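thread: overnight batch results

M.L. [08:02]
morning all. the overnight job finished for the chain we discussed friday. pasting input first so we're all looking at the same thing
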Amino acid sequence: MEKYIQLVNAYSKFIPLEFLSILEKEDILQLHLGDMVKKEMTVFYTDIRSFTTISESLTPEENIVFLNSYLKKAVPIISKNGGFIDKFIGDAILAVFPKSVDDAVQTGIDLIHMLRNYNLNELSEKNYKIKVNIGINSGEMMIGVIGNDNRMECTVISDTVNTAARLEEIGKEYGTYITISNYAIANLEEFERFHFRFLDRLKVRGKEILVPIYEVFDCDRPEVIEKKIDTKLIFEQGVLHYIQKEYNKSFDKFVEVLKINPDDKAALFYLHRAAHYMTYGFSETLLQTEKLIVWTKDYEIGIFVIDEQHKKLVEIINELHKAISDKMETGVTYRILQQLNEYTLAHFSIEEEIMKKIKYPEFDLHKAMHGSFIDKVNRFKDDYLAGKKLSGEIMVFLREWLTNHILHSDKDGIGKFYFQNF
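M.L. [08:03]
and the structure it wrote out:
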């Protein structure tokens, strides 16, 4: 009997007892190929950001140690909240929550909080900071035994699982920790426990209707949560304008959001997309060409929102260079100039708001530099509209002004002041 108990305990590490319970089996010996049950449940899918980059710098042995150190902390959080592991897929975890969506959402929040503490306090010199994305979806799914007579396993099969994996993946684009479907939100038992905001609509394979998706932001730092609550209405208005292809209105809304919350990665993502479509329409993109400015880490000042907006300005100037070099039609070139003007105004207003908040001593001088640049860009735009060609000298000016401003006024100025004082 003792040997039998040991055997059952050993098998339970490979086939969770929760599977047996759902399949209404008393022990593993009662499982047969083809056993199945259809049940409404919640899927929780998560994986480590940039794991390929991390794993390439580790030996096979170090990879196993790295993953196990993470899973040793992550899995108990899933179990504590009423979930169980369906499978590990490399660095990814597919977990199932049979009771409620609330359990899955709370697991995501607890997991992010645990990793934030782990990254701050428990990393050795050789460890990498672990950041994850999480996708949560609910729906009807089939849980059953698959394989053949020689090799069987219990698993969950459903489009619900595929959508959860898509939600996890899309979170990397928007910079969100937890992305959840409207199906899952509709099944929450205590909706008021959590904070959400509408993020987008997702095209799901095999379905014509787009699925509304949301960000859960209770896992953010307290000050970020407060700012996301304050800007929720503006953010969601920006998303709706974007969906309706009202890109100018969308752009303006996300500028408002970023002035209040410069760390809002989803707002920054939308700001960039809206800026692009304001110029090129929904499907047009410029072809690759030799770049006037090549972005490198040397240009990073260390403040995320400013660095990301600098990258976008570099991209716009490179697009203008492409338009001039390829002698594109006047309308295209003018729209790029217009985009440069509007995006620069938005960037400067956000950067100036940050300078005010940190009480940057050179604020007035820095703002004057911004004003001078805007005046020049407006002059280029007006001259071009009046029929004057854009010369190579103008592109040299744009390149030299932006790179010098980033490296000296921003990096040596704002960047150094920020990190010395904050």
